[in-house]
Design a protein that fits this description.
The protein is mainly alpha-helical. About 90% of the residues lie in helices and about 0% in strands. Helix 2 (about 15-45) packs antiparallel against helix 3. It is rod-shaped and about 115 Å long.
């Protein structure tokens, strides 16, 4: 996460979509590697010395994490996630832009209507005062 955050701060082309996708996939790979290591340690703990079980668990966890990383690179899972997030961002901006435009139009129409009503009331009041003076 730290490296992703540093990249996000200092690289111009590294966006929030890159940060979210790489951080998410890195966390998933780390958790799956840790689970594999824990399971290997538990399985080996029943028949071996604790040091061997712990060491084997760590080694298997690292191997699984490296394997998951190579799978990610081969199938471009992180890149696909980045593309999907960018697609959703564009879609949201388009949808939100249309909604903001509708709200703007409705607000301006309402504002103009209230100004017309106030202007009519003021004009009617002014005219009625003029008529009453005569």
């Amino acid at each position: 996460m730290t490296l992703n955050s540093i990249s996000w701060l200092f690289e111009e082309n590294y966006r929030w979509t890159n940060w979210l996708a790489t951080t998410s996939t890195d966390i998933v790979k780390a958790v799956l590697g840790a689970l594999a290591g824990i399971l290997a340690g538990i399985v080996l703990a029943s028949g071996t010395v604790a040091v061997v079980a712990i060491g084997s668990g760590i080694i298997i966890g690292v191997i699984v994490s490296i394997g998951l990383n190579s799978i990610d690179k081969r199938f471009e899972i992180t890149k696909s996630l980045i593309k999907y997030l960018e697609y959703k961002e564009r879609h949201l901006m388009k949808t939100t832009g249309e909604e903001i435009h509708r709200v703007y139009i409705a607000t301006v129409s309402s504002f103009l209507k209230s100004i017309k009503i106030k202007a009519r009331k003021a004009l009617n009041s002014f005219l009625s005062e003029l008529v009453n003076l005569w």
